[in-house]
Amino acid sequence: MSAVSNAGHPGTAVGLAANQWGQGDNPDPLIRHKHGLVGTSVSRIDGPLKVQGKATFAAEFVKEGLTYAALAFSTIAKGRIETLDTSAAEAAPGVVLVMTYKNAPRMKPMPLFMTAEKAAGGDNLPIMQDDRVHWNGQPIALVLAETQEQADFASSLVHATFKAEPSVTNFKEAKRRGTKTGEFGGGPLKLEIGDAEAALTQVPVSIDAQYSTPRHSHNAIEPHAATVAWDGDALLVHDASQAVVHTAWSLSSVFGIDESQVHVTSPYVGGGFGSKTLWQHQVLGAAASKLAGRPVRITLSREGVYRMVGGRSQTEQRVALGADKDGRLKAIIHTGVVAMSHQNALPEPFILATRGAYAADAFKLHVEVAQMDMLANTFMRAPGEAVGTFGLECALDELADKLGIDPVEIRILNEPDKHPTEGKPFSSRNIVEAWRTGAQRFGWAKRNAKPGSVRQGEWLIGMGCATGTYPYYRMPGGAARITLRKDGHARVEIAAHEMGMGTATAHSQVTADRLGLPLDQVTFGYGDSKMPGAVLAGGSQQSASIGAAIVAAQHALFAQLLILAGNASPLAGLRPEEVGGFNGGLVALADLARSESYASIMGRAGRDEIVVQEDAPPPMELQNWSMHSYGAMFCEARVNAVTGETRISRFLGSFDCGRILNAKTAASQFRGGIIMGLGLALMEETQFDERNGRIMNPSLAEYHVPAHMDVPEIDVIWNDIPDPHTPMGAHGIGEIGITGTAAAVANAVFNATGKRVRDLPLTLDKLM
Amino acid sequence: MPITVNGNEAELPHDPRVSLLDLLREDLHLFGAKKGCNQGACGACTVLVDGQRVLSCLTLAVQCEGRHVMTVEGLAGDNGLHPLQKAFIEHDGFQCGFCTPGQICSALGMAAEFDRGVPSVITEDFDDDGVALTPEEIRERMSGNLCRCGAHNGIVAAIAEVHAIQGDRTDSREAAA
Ligand code: FES
Ligand code: FES
């Protein structure tokens, strides 16, 4: 270990991190580096472009001879297209092509997400390959025209009749037909430890309640779009993507071409939240482009996004908790049913958080799936945890109320000392500290435990809290290339994504610290399938994946630099582990007097640049440890006693998420998650017509997301305790904010009014 | 009479269905104004027409004959940044940046409305002393601009800061006169 310590010079040179994670006692030396860029509030490096409107999004690539696409959709949930009259559309001004199942090129279905390493498809259906209809809103015709206006008009002239077949679009009916156990991450969503039902009958205090959450839509403000062009057999897609390499591989499979022939770029993404993967629009846009021999821009209308891109499925959850008189949990039951389509494989896994939340003797956790004929549901911010913590954390609040125990204290009381259902040690879990500092800052002690007892005029005021949690993941597939130039400029390239998380900024900071360079000497290239790695921006795992890949490449870089430095260098004889990046060069960690700049090393070796590329090691840390981000969420709600209107007046998130890489962009990530959680709590619902399987509110006017007036000042704090087993000591922060939030709101509303609402969203009719 | 966009004259489209938003984006390749919904629900397409904020997706291009359109690209010169653009960066008033041009144009139009004495639904007393452009007033007046990334706090802080500074300047000019 002494070789990688900073030898009495903290905050100067950063030695190499061991190129393995979670094994032994080898924390990333960057954790101890206190005076660098990591952790500081650097403004986004793409900020100037974005505020000037100069960041180029998918629908903004200019191409010679561009055509515009518009779609027509099915109006039945299941059956066949009986007649399809496209003659009027074809004759309309400006129309280049009308594509239907009759003339579309033959294509393979999209490889369904999670069924292969680089599969990215939201469904696995052969769209426009035959006359079959699989969901209400399925695209049945694509019109290409010289302008968007011409395409939109012509698509309205497509006339279809359908032969409907019996379909299941009613959740009750789907459940009646039988459910099956959901599968997630290669295993069943079912877990039993002890006899929880029996334990529940033997405890002095228990809660047994039903909770429900509706369907949700991501509603990124940028609608899904792609600008597509073929050059012979090579396909170029300017996409809005959180999975560029996955998308390229999947498209190559659809069109039967080599992976290397598909190039997907995605320099900027106008929000994703789980929705910006591969859906039918990229496939159909590419097919139409092939057929017409012209480049295509396909931008889904807002309605089109609702028809073609799935959202979060609905859940019905039973949560039963049994405790002794002191409030210690003996039994935890979390079971229920979710709706899922036939053409996808994500049963909303609402028990994930419950597996590791609290200590108890007996557990019974089970997610059952009822299949429906509908648009494929999919991943949406914190799939599982966002809605699962609503049930669990509301039930715990109900239990605390029944026991007369403070809701914060009951959570601390049931804190496990190891993972309660897996038995693994926690790598870094400091949620109790987050609770204590959060409660202090929020003024939790002022809460009146008696519901309905604080009133100001018409307004009833209450406080509530809940735990948020989301796992640390690092998926295999990370890789990075570093190009170091003689002038001391480093460019990192990795096929990762920037959807507003601050990825490019945070990892420029990390790279600058690791290599001992100023921030303006580092650039971070991303969003291009031709770059190394297959890195998904999902599961809050991108930062860990990038971090591990950069470390791997840095090992190769330092090794090469030392070879080039040779015997004439003050660094002669040193091994890569014995040097650190410092002041534009390498320095001996044990003797800061021994150093040489990158310019000098490369100059003597006659090199203008060094290029290294390495794969990240496999995620061994996940084998050895239970790893999660945590949040203690506090909410103050005001409910109007006359109208039932709920306003959130204060919110605090107190986070335990490892080391924070950029204080400014991290705060925005936390707030963004919480605000989406406020929407989940108070207003969001994708309304599904159970008679015919059609989404009834496919617009931002009818699906309500939080507007400025709904969002108070959101306070966020974090304890910044690094995890010794992860790159940079960091955990993911993209999804944690949406977890626990809805329960904190519902619990605050209960404290304000004495009314317990168990069905989201908490609209005013439920509080009248 | 043509239309003026960021000080440059441009031809009106032949197709009367073309919205101001599509004219800007597809004909003039000014991609700053964004199409988030194309139906007046999100505010991402907000631009200034003769200084007033409008939803360019709900405005036909031909309606703007002879009028002056300002988009986010025209707020500062080629290299510089408008103070509000700088404040958005400083306060992290965006994440993905897709709603941002609309938020910025809307904020400028909103501030001008406020300075003209136009009340909002929550304004209680707009007398000669004026009222402050409080965070609450900003939230109310900016609620037509959605942000799904949740950058609301930073947006409000940026607008409040710039308005307060410019208010100070106006006050000192008045005091000097
Ligand atoms: S695009 Fe104009 S309001 Fe949404
Ligand atoms: S910054 Fe992404 S929608 Fe506002």
UniProtKB/TrEMBL annotation, chain A:
Aldehyde oxidase/xanthine dehydrogenase a/b hammerhead domain span: 52-166
Molecular functions per Gene Ontology: iron ion binding; oxidoreductase activity
InterPro entries in UniProt: Ald_Oxase/Xan_DH_a/b, Ald_Oxase/Xan_DH_a/b_sf, Ald_Oxase/xanthine_DH-like, AldOxase/xan_DH_MoCoBD1, AldOxase/xan_DH_MoCoBD2, AldOxase/xan_DH_Mopterin-bd_sf
Species this chain originates from: Acidisoma silvae
Protein name, as recorded: Xanthine dehydrogenase family protein molybdopterin-binding subunit
Claim: Lipid biosynthesis is one of the keywords in the record: no
PANTHER family in alphabetical order: ALDEHYDE OXIDASE 1-RELATED, XANTHINE DEHYDROGENASE
Keyword entries, A-Z: Molybdenum, Oxidoreductase
Coiled-coil stretches noted in the UniProt entry, renumbered to this chain: none
From TrEMBL, chain B:
Limits of the 2Fe-2S ferredoxin-type domain: 1-75
PROSITE patterns assigned: 2FE2S_FER_1, 2FE2S_FER_2
Pfam name, any one: Fer2_2
Gene3D superfamilies: 3.10.20.30, [2Fe-2S]-binding domain
Signal sequence residues: none
CDD domains xref list: fer2 (cd00207)
Record keywords: 2Fe-2S, Iron, Iron-sulfur, Metal-binding, Oxidoreductase
InterPro entries: 2Fe-2S-bd, 2Fe-2S-bd_dom_sf, 2Fe-2S_ferredoxin-like_sf, 2Fe-2S_ferredoxin-type, 2Fe2S_fd_BS, Aldehyde_Oxdr_Iron-Sulfur, Beta-grasp_dom_sf
UniProt GO MF annotations: 2 iron, 2 sulfur cluster binding; metal ion binding; oxidoreductase activity, acting on the aldehyde or oxo group of donors
Protein name: 2Fe-2S iron-sulfur cluster binding domain-containing protein
Organism: Acidisoma silvae
